[in-house]
Amino acid sequence: SEAAAPVPRVAVVVFLLRGKTVLLGKRCSSVGQSTFALPGGHLEFGESFEICAAREVKEETGLDICKIEFLTVTNNVFLQEPKPSHYVTVFMRASLGDPQQVPQNLEPDKCDGWDWYAWDNLPKPLFWPLEKMVLSGFDPFPVG
Ligand code: 8DG
Ligand code: MG
Ligand code: MG
Predict the structure, then answer these.
(1) Residue 133 to residues 32, 117, 138: CA-CA distances in angstroms?
(2) Which of 30, 75, 85, 127 to mutate to test the pocket of ligand 1 (most atoms within 8 A of CB)?
(3) pTM metric for this prediction
(4) pLDDT in tens, 65-95
């Protein structure tokens, strides 16, 4: 039988903001191996961006988020990766429901661990869809 033709998929990722820091984790997955990325994952059938954002953050870090808002969307084609893929990536922002809550690494096969990083001192290398945004001057923090 023939392999299914590849198709673009939708991902929802979250700038989880705490003061002037964001939550990032170093990826262990084949796409973006060893680069720092936002929590997030695949949009499921019938799901809103907000529900997907809250679900993925909870599954990956145990954190409960609030003030979930849409920021922007980018088109990301990964042809050089071991497994070529294409994602339409929806970027959301959110805050911690409880500012004292600490992230847990609930999917250690996919991530080395989560931590807060100052926006003006981000770790390297960033996952390239995120790197592209930072280089373009994108700022996920609310104005004022
Ligand atoms: P799932 O089974 O939980 O739905 O998926 P996942 O294992 O959590 O997927 P993921 O790789 O974390 O996210 C899906 C895709 O989203 C990823 O392969 C590429 C795209 N993506 C970006 N930027 C980012 C980002 O900053 N973080 C994450 N996690 N994914 C991103 O384009
Ligand atoms: Mg996930
Ligand atoms: Mg993920």
Answers:
(1) 15, 16, 5
(2) 127
(3) 0.96
(4) 999 999 999 999 999 887 889 999 999 999 9
